[in-house]
Amino acid sequence: MGVGAVIFHDNKVLLVKRGKEPGYGKWSIPRGAIELGETLKEGVLREVKEETGLELEIGGIVEVLDWVGRDENNRIKYHYVLVDFWCKCLSLELNPSSDVLDARWVQLSDAPNYDLPLATLEVIDKGFRKFKTSLLK
Q1: pLDDT-based confidence at 137, cuts 50/70/90?
Q2: pTM reported for the whole predicted model
Q3: pLDDT digits over 42-86, tens only?
Q4: Where does residue 101 fall: left (phi above 0), alpha (psi -120 to 50 degrees), or beta otherwise?
Q5: Residue 39 CA: distances (Å) to CA of 2, 34, 44
Q6: 51 and 16 in contact (C-beta within 8 Å)?
Q7: Residue 22: is the preceding peptide bond cis (ω within 30°)?
Q8: Nearest one of 135, 116, 131, 132 to 61, comparing CA atoms
């Protein structure tokens, strides 16, 4: 089981360049596996703190996805069920850890330039709509 954070500040989303497999060197939202006994929300807060140093306020679930990785012979290497949450950022200073090669705030309109999977772009879009709605309350 894994969790992800779609983190927004103004019209920007936080992207990280993964420093570990799966997806080494690829851009993504902050993600990781939950630990035994950890709630989903605890896992999101821990993963984001570890990867970026940021403090968050978790808004709610954006999407639940299956992420299946296969090897060159089409055999399954891993299968994660991911629960992605939209989040408000409470601190803006990025302190990327060794788990990520880079972390940056990206204008939403520029996110497609980071070679993100379509499912990730859809999660970002859906999460931003929920984030904007929360600002109106």
Answers
A1: low
A2: 0.89
A3: 999 999 999 999 999 999 999 999 989 899 999 999 888 999 999
A4: alpha
A5: 11, 8, 9
A6: yes
A7: yes
A8: 131
- Compute how many other C-beta atoms are within 10 angstroms of the C-beta atom of residue 8: 24
Can you tell me the distance from the alpha carbon of 79 to that of 59, in angstroms, rounded to the nearest whole number?
A: 26
* Largest pairwise CA distance in the chain: 50
Task: Give yes or no for a contact between 31 and 4, defined as CB atoms under 8 angstroms apart.
Answer: yes
Q: For 33-38, what is the mean pLDDT? A: 96
According to DSSP, the residues that pair with 104 across neighbouring strands are 15
Instruction: Tell me which CATH code domain 2-135 carries.
Output: 3.90.79.10
- Confidence band for 136, pLDDT divided at 50, 70 and 90: confident
